[in-house]
Each structure stands twice: as C-alpha cells, then as structure tokens.
Amino acid sequence: MSDWQVWIIAGIALLIAEVIAPGFWLLSVAVGCFTAALAGVLPFGVVFQVLAFATGTVLSAALLRPFLLRRRGGHHVRTNVDALIGKTGVVVERIDSLQRTGRVIVDGEDWRGAALDDGIIESGTRITVVAVDGATLKVDPEALLP
Hints:
The protein has three helices and five strands. The protein is α+β, with helices and mostly antiparallel strands.
C-alpha cells in the first residue's frame, strides 16, 4: 500500500469519527491527512508528507473550523449561576447601603443579593438579576409598568 493510500484511509476514518464526536477538530486533522495524501503522490518523501499534514491541519483548524462553527449557528448556553442573569426574583431581606447585601429569591433559591447601584431595595420588591459576583447576585429593581 502506498503512502498516499494510508493518508486517505486515515482521513476517511477521521471523517467517520467526526460524525460521532462533533466539534470540527477531527475534520481539521482529516483535511491534514488529505493534504498529506496529495503530497504523497509527489516524489518528495515522507518528511514532505508530514509537513503537508501539519500545515493542512493547522490551516484548516485556523480557517475552516471557525467558519463551520459560525455556519452551524447555535448560541452560547449559559449554565450554573450565570444562567440566573436576566431572571427575576423577590427581595426577602432588605438590601441597604450599610450592609451592602441582603437576600433574594430567584428561581426558588435563596441568594445573597446586592444592589447594582449600592442603593436600598426594600423587602418584597421584585428584582432582575443583572450580574453575578462570586456567590452574590447584583440586582436591580424591576421597572414598574404603567
């Protein structure tokens, strides 16, 4: 079996593996294999094939992968405490400028809350989570609708 045939088989195997483990990383390596297969047809030897493989892999990871990730669409999913940003809740313990923090309930969970502008937010006020600082939710009172 010729060198170029080995590179083609490896590239096809990596394409199949990409279907199982998506992320376009294995696709970049497969492109490197196909580049090395093209180099294998030329009379330059194995070192040239390895250089072609490395170049093809790096270039496809740098150029092709970001393009495909953008085309795939999808959006970043916030998880853990970052998923609370934008959620609403209620102040259960007054947030004032002296203590700097109070307690809020967001999604049924009790959290330390701090006013975004270091102001006072009375107990019972509906709030929106604006940011997260460690285990403290930075909150802002919800605007009253007319």
